[in-house]
What does this fold into?
Amino acid sequence: MNTKTLEQMKQLRLFGMHRAFENSLTPESINYTSDELVAYLTQSEWDDRQNRKIERLTKSAYFRYSAVMEAIDYDPSRALDKNQIQRFSCCDFIKNKQNILITGSTGAGKSYMASAIGHQACSLGYKVVYYNTNKLFTLLKTAKADGSYLKQISKLEKQDLLILDDFGLRALDNMNRHALMEIIEDRHGKHSTIIASQLPVEAWHELIGEHTIADAILDRLVHTAHRIDIKGESMRKKLKK
It folds into this structure.
């Protein structure tokens, strides 16, 4: 009977329950009451599905780093507000449709921090996608050519959290400027965006170009944004030392 039950659990794709029930049949297992056994099997299936969901969300986010909030360095030289950053762990900024703007010099740890927040969002069940900004613009230009542009824009719009890393390494041309406007406009008031850049926010207007469009983009980005400006020497140099 137990062999048949285990096989049916597999066929029903109740993998967590299957593993838990199989473990409960060993001589070393705890003697459960019927209520305890049902609770144990149900919790095991729940945990298994949650873990697989997190794994799926993390994989589809395409993070640059496997980063965790606990590993962020709060050395005084970096001038980070630990309370501010730790509050991001509960991802209320996503619930509130707010943005995060992370700035700092090369190697300061901007990408790691953005990725750590993104990983945390995945662990809470949010849909996240990470892009190097220049590679995203290249992807969208290709999409314009092959007719899949609207599909790509729609995919970006649906993400609970969009991370744009290395923003501002190149000035925006007209097509990239309008693509960024479309992305930010579609997400404004609906979903959250994290932007990491070497340039201070005050320099983004000139970087975007086209006064009217720059005003529109920054108005939607900055006014509902949490700001993090990372100080100190390059983390890469620090790690080498």
